UniProtKB/TrEMBL annotation:
CDD domains: WGR_MMR_like
Keywords: Plasmid
Record flagged with keyword Membrane: no
Presence of the UniProt keyword Transcription regulation in the record: no
Entry protein name: WGR domain-containing protein
Cross-referenced PROSITE patterns: WGR
Domain named WGR: residues: 1-65
Length: 65
């Protein structure tokens, strides 16, 4: 099955950071989950953990541009 998993760290409205996870089957909208953090450091730390886990399961980085 062709599927995707997308991670991004973005600023939130309150001066913190949001880790946004999107996943699903290619060609569909998929699902989304947002995790809020007090600062960028925490969000990036969680981002790296998730990226490592997904690469271990067979997902590979791909540029959107």
């Amino acid at each position: 099955m062709a599927r995707f998993y997308q991670l991004s760290v973005e600023p939130d409205l309150f001066g913190g950071a949001a880790l946004i996870r999107r996943w699903g089957r290619i060609g569909t909208r998929g699902q989304e989950r947002i995790h809020l953090f007090d600062n960028d450091r925490q969000a990036i730390s969680r981002f790296l953990v998730l990226a490592r886990q997904k690469r271990a399961r067979g997902y590979r980085p791909q540029s959107c541009y």
